[in-house]
Amino acid sequence: EVQLLDSGGGLVQPGGSLRLSCAASGFSFKSYAMSWVRQAPGKGLEWVSGLSGSGVSTYYADSVEGRFIISRDNSKNTLSLYMSSLRAEDTAIYYCAKGLVGATRGYFDYWGQGTLVTVSS
Amino acid sequence: DIQMTQSPSTLSASVGDRVTITCRASQSINSWLAWYQQKPGKAPKLLIYKTSSLESGVPSRFSGSGSGTEFTLTISSLQPDDFATYYCQQYSSDLYTFGQGTTLEIK
């Protein structure tokens, strides 16, 4: 059974940093593209960042380019998102999402339960 | 970036109704479109991918169609469990985008 367990959210001050993690199980993690998708309170879904199975290719939404870094550890089946220079508008539930095998582009067939990030002083 | 626009934003309907949600892309995305259902407090659930392919386990009352820039999600006969928010997502480019969502409410 595919499982994605998101963690690392919390309250952080504007300008601060935070690292999110997603522990994956139930599939060959290293073979699949992965992404982070966020949802601000009461708002819609926004794709944040994605990377290929190898981790070589990474992609970012314009809203987080230069501030967030996505990475993965295929030996530990873990996806990470390092967020810096955080702003109030980064407040959201962050979901990790499983993409397609052997591809960087695709839809998301499994999602984590989400972890809440609140940026506030 | 490719912009995705859904309509309507809110849809009121009754159990048994046939409903259609539209998603328009700002440029052609061929058939690289997915649909998700989200219920309050839950993660999104994949319903349809590549415009019209039904994800395993999704009821056959859900269907998708379209190509290029205009796409639709149709629910043939609404069930109580279908009242939720629906999102389209394009994956034609490396920078994915979602529609703003359509909330399906009970009339």
Set out the fold topology.
The complex is a heterodimer of chains A (121) and B (107).
Chain A: E1 3-7, E2 10-12, E3 18-25, E4 32-39, E5 45-51, E6 58-60, E7 68-73, E8 78-83, E9 92-101, E10 110-111, E11 115-119
Parallel strand pairs in A: 2-11
Antiparallel strand pairs in A: 1-3, 3-8, 4-5, 4-9, 5-6, 7-8, 9-10, 9-11
Chain B: E1 4-7, E2 10-13, E3 19-25, E4 33-38, E5 45-49, E6 53-54, E7 62-67, E8 70-75, E9 85-90, E10 97-98, E11 102-106
Parallel strand pairs in B: 2-11
Antiparallel strand pairs in B: 1-3, 3-8, 4-5, 4-9, 5-6, 7-8, 9-10, 9-11
Oligomeric state of the chains in view: heterodimer
Number of strands of chain A: 11
Count, helices of chain B: 0
Share in helix of chain A: under 10%
Rg over CA atoms of chain A = 13 Å
* Unreliably modeled segments of chain A: none
- Total helical segments of chain A: 0
- By secondary-structure content and strand pairing, the structural class of chain A works out as mainly beta
- Average pLDDT metric of chain A: 96
Strand content of chain B: over 45%
Mean pLDDT of chain B: 97
Query: Largest beta sheet of chain A, briefly?
Result: 7 strands, mixed
Number of strands of chain B: 11
Q: The biggest beta sheet of chain B, please?
A: 7 strands, mixed
What's the shape of chain B?
Answer: globular
| N-to-C CA distance of chain B | 36 Å
Helix vs. strand class of chain B: mainly beta
Question: In percent, how helical is the residue content of chain B?
Answer: under 10%
SSE succession of chain A: EEEEEEEEEEE
- Beta fraction of chain A: over 45%
Description:
The mean pLDDT of chain A is 96. With 121 residues, chain A is mainly β. In chain A, strands 2, 4, 5, 6, 9, 10 and 11 form a seven-stranded mixed β-sheet that branches. Chain A has a four-stranded antiparallel β-sheet with strand order 1-3-8-7, with no helix packed on it. Chain A has strands spanning 3-7, 10-12, 18-25, 32-39, 45-51, 58-60, 68-73, 78-83, 92-101, 110-111, 115-119. The radius of gyration of chain A is 13 Å and the shape is globular. Chain A is built from no helices and eleven strands. By secondary structure, chain B is mainly β. In chain B, 0% of the residues lie in helices and 50% in strands. Chain B has strands spanning 4-7, 10-13, 19-25, 33-38, 45-49, 53-54, 62-67, 70-75, 85-90, 97-98, 102-106. In chain B, the strands form two sheets. In chain B, strands 2, 4, 5, 6, 9, 10 and 11 form a seven-stranded mixed β-sheet that branches. The N and C termini of chain B lie far apart (36 Å). Chains A and B meet through strand 5 of A and strand 4, strand 5 and strand 10 of B.
